[in-house]
Amino acid sequence: MAKPISSCRQFFQKTAPYSLGFAGSFLCLLSTPNPAQAEVVADTYLPTETIVTPSGTTFEIRGGTQRGSNLFHSFQEFSIPAGSEAFFKNAPEIQNLFGRVTGGQLSTIDGTLRANGTANLFLINPNGIIFGSNARLNIGGSFIASTASSFKFPDGSEFSTTNPQAPSLLAINVPIGLQYGANPRRILNQSRFTDTNGKIIGLQVPPGQTIGLIGGQVSLEGGYLTSEGGRVELGSVGENSFVRLTTTTDGFSAGYEGVQRFQDIQLSQQAAIAASGSGGGNIQVQGAQVLLSGGSQLLADTLGSLDGGGIVIQAQQLSLREGAFVSASTFSSGAAGSLTVKASAVEIIGNQELQAILDQLFNTKTITPSELGSGLFSLSFGSGSANTLTIDTERLSLREGAFISTSPFNIGMGGDMVVRASESVEIVGSELFGDSYGDGDAGQVLVQTRRLTATEGGGIFTSTFGGGRGGNLTVQASDSIELIGTTSDGQFKSGFASNAFRDATQAAGNLRIETRQLTIRDGAGIGAATFGAASGGTLNIQASELVELIGTSQDGKELSSLNTQSIGTGAGGDIQIDTRRLVVRDGGVISTTTQDVGRAGRLVVRASDSVELSGTSADGMFFSSLRSEASSDSVPSSFIPPSQSEVLGEAGDLTVETGQLMVRDGAQISVNGEKLAAAGNLRVNADTIRLENDGKITAATVSGARGNITLRTQNLLLRGGSQISTNADNADGGNIRLDTDTLVALENSDISANALVGAGGRVIINAAGIFGTQFRETQTPESDITATSALGPDFSGIVELNTPEVNPSQGLVELPQTPIDPTRLIATGCPADEGNSFALTGRGGLPEDPTGMLRGRAIWRDLRLMNGGGAGELGSWGAEEQRSRGAGEQG
Question: What is the spatial distance between Cα 192 and Cα 220, in angstroms, rounded to a whole number?
């Protein structure tokens, strides 16, 4: 039976390849009703050859060699013009269609690929594949396009484009992988085919199936790949690679263990890879440089009740720019899939103004990934929970309004965020955030790196705005953390924060920072605040070498700060700092504060070497400080407490433990209670405490209670108008206790527990020596110790100065009036036998007074005999021993 002629080229190849002339060409043109018919051309290498029959705009593909449920086709050329279709007319029992292109030409597909039934379609062309803007798929199974040179099967056979002669037996199994040659070519997808609803789907396989492009360089220039709830594979490999194919419930997954070198993947011009569905699908992207730009997207969102799969990106470098983003979020009851990035470098450059995005989040409590722009997202917008977002890299860089987020915006839980960057994390005008904007709890955020820098308002945040609990934030930087500045308008600090905002009903998360050196400067900060009834988070800083806070923002309005704060009824969190050295200068501040009825947290500083506080801000408005402060600024002025004992807020206690404490040039350590609020207690344990040039340690109240100071040190020095005070306005003065070896106060430096409308406090000083200051009834230009009241002497406090009464003559022994005659110390009547002598001297080189009373002594004698010695030897040894010991001590 004669075979149909599939094309002019195939006909002349079989009949007269060397006799074709101009007439033959003309005949071919005349016999070709549509130029498109010359684009799909079969070759002759298979035992049962592929037959291509043009039928209008359709290339009907029959024949091929069948092995079990596999059907093999081989083509000299394979291209489909726009408006045309290549139709594989396979039998229903066929599960896998394998097509190869052997002729050395790239494939340009701008029409439709169609197959019968649910067969999977595999197409390889080592010379490259281009999918045009009109390209589409009409198949019932998975689709994988590759520039591999051959399919490899479990029995060792290959279906090769470079060695196309038919093997003795083609495999009946699914291939184990794709074998690439010396120069894998490019795959380009530009397909923007739309469905009946006008939605762009590009190259789409049925729901739950796999679509994959695995070649040399892989580019999507505005092109789409779609598999609803299925799998999308994108791989770019180098020479002589082997890519393993594994059957999965959603088609096929690719394994890249046999790849030595990868090539680049680019998505641009609003390209998209979409595996979203009732249950979010799976996306795997594997390449060297993976670049998404121009609003391109990777989407594996959960839109229904099924749980999502996940997105995995592995590359040498991942870059997201110009609004490109990756999302594995949930919009319904199903859980979101995970999002994992493994790359040597991850760079995300945004296209949004940070302030505009933050304003939208604060005002509307919702935002979509496309509105956020460039970023990585695992978000929850429904009842389903977000999943874990993991980044493993050497260097992570976020710039110009880029975002990474695992936030919940509804009742679903937020996801955890894990960033492991072995070298550095750089956040410039961008954010990592796991805030809870709904009733779902936020996830945990963990960042591990060697060096972290946040500038221009950039930072890491885990706050709560609603009924969900805030997530904990842990940052571990083995070398350093540097937080610098604010946004250009000064509205947002660079740094870390975990806040509970006004409508929050659950507590904010806790912050833990572990590093060698922490630097906060130019108005940046780390904070944990509550603005309502929920409790604020705690702040724990572990810095093995140094914590330093320096200066203010450029406009002077924002202080470089570590703080917890209560601006509501909820309690503020505690701060604990453990380091070798703490430096706060030029207006920097570490504080726990309350501005309402909520209690401020405790502040504990442990610095094994030193704590140094110095100076004020450049304009002199803010002093460097450690403080816990309570005020009632937000309490209505019409509120009048029934008694002075009812206070609205309470400052926390402040404790400092260090080797040396220096407070100078206007700096302060304080626990203050303003208006109706109570002050906390202040305790310092240090080897040395120095207050110089208006340095202050204070515990002041206006109408509140408490405010006590306890200092324990070996040396306490006050100079240049410095102060230790527990003064009060409309309350009793607080108490001061100083336990020290020496107290020196010079140059009008005062210690005071005074009151205006109330009794003076109590000052207790236990010191071996007090120099330069003394108790006085009133303050003077000298250095004073006072506990006075403006109400008069009857309301004065108590000052106790406890110093030991030392008698300089105690323990001295009176020496004899007349020098002793040395001859009186010689005992007479002793026989001067050979080899013997006797000497008696007083202890310490002073001779005894023979006329004085003898004092009892314990005398030791060795009564043992010397081995092998007689009496004469014993006497000689004993005399030598006496001489040798007699010069140093007696007896």
Answer: 10
Q: What is the pLDDT of residues 325-346, one digit of tens each?
A: 999 999 999 999 999 999 999 9
* pLDDT value at 174 more than 60: yes
Quickly count helices (H) and strands (E) in the chain: 5, 62
**Distance of alpha carbon 592 from the chain centroid:** 24
CB 203 within 8 A of CB 223: yes
CATH number of 33-259+266-274: 2.160.20.10
Phi, psi of 304, deg, nearest 5: -140, -150
Decide if 491 contacts 453 (C-beta within 8 A): no
C-alpha–C-alpha distance, residues 679 and 730, integer Å? 13
Encode pLDDT of 19-36 as tens digits.
333 333 333 333 333 433
* Structural tokens at position 433: 């955030």
- The structural domains of the chain, with segments of one domain joined by +, span 33-259+266-274, 276-509, 556-635+645-707, 718-805, 822-847+872-891
The size of the chain, in residues, is 891
C-alpha–C-alpha distance, residues 244 and 73, integer Å? 21
For the record, the structure tokens of 717 come out as 């020095």
Backbone phi and psi for residue 209, each to the nearest 5 degrees, phi listed first: -105, 175
Residue tagged 């595996």 (tokens): 275
Helices (H), 548-595: none
pLDDT over threshold 60, residue 882: no
Structure tokens at 743: 């107290």
Q: CB under 8 Å to 609, separation ≥6 — which residues?
A: 580, 581, 658, 659, 660
Which residue, 356, 413, 337, is CA-closest to 381? Answer: 413
Integer Cα distance of 646 and 640 in angstroms: 10
Q: How far apart are CA 799 and CA 754, in angstroms?
A: 11
Cα–Cα dist 668/684, whole Å: 13
Strands (E), 522-559: 525-530, 539-550
Q: Which pLDDT score is estimated for 525? A: 98
Spatial contact of 707 and 699, defined as CB atoms under 8 Å apart: yes
Say how far apart CA 497 and CA 476 lie, in whole Å. 15
750 Cα distance to chain centroid:
46
**pTM metric for this prediction:** 0.84
Q: CA-CA distance, 810 to 102, in Å (whole number)?
A: 113
Please check whether residue 877 is in contact with residue 864, taking contact to mean a CB–CB distance below 8 angstroms: no
Helix axes 8-15 and 22-30, enclosed angle (nearest 10):
140
115 Cβ partners below 8 Å, 6+ apart?
87, 88, 90, 97, 121, 138, 139, 140, 141
CB atoms within 10 A of CB 659: 14
- The helix (H) or strand (E) run that includes residue 882 is helix 871-886
Question: What are the residues whose beta carbons fall under 8 Å from the beta carbon of 786, sequence distance 6 or more?
Answer: 750, 751, 752, 753, 754, 760, 763, 775, 776, 777, 778, 779, 799
Cα distance between residue 121 and residue 128, in whole Å: 17
Q: By C-alpha distance, which of 608, 614, 457, 615 is closest to 543? A: 608
Sort strands 85-88 and 272-274 into parallel, antiparallel or unpaired. Answer: unpaired
Which position has the token pair 């404490």? Answer: 661
Question: Tens digit of pLDDT for each residue in 647-701?
Answer: 467 888 999 999 999 999 999 999 987 766 677 899 999 999 999 999 999 998 7
For residue 198 the two structure tokens come to 């006008």
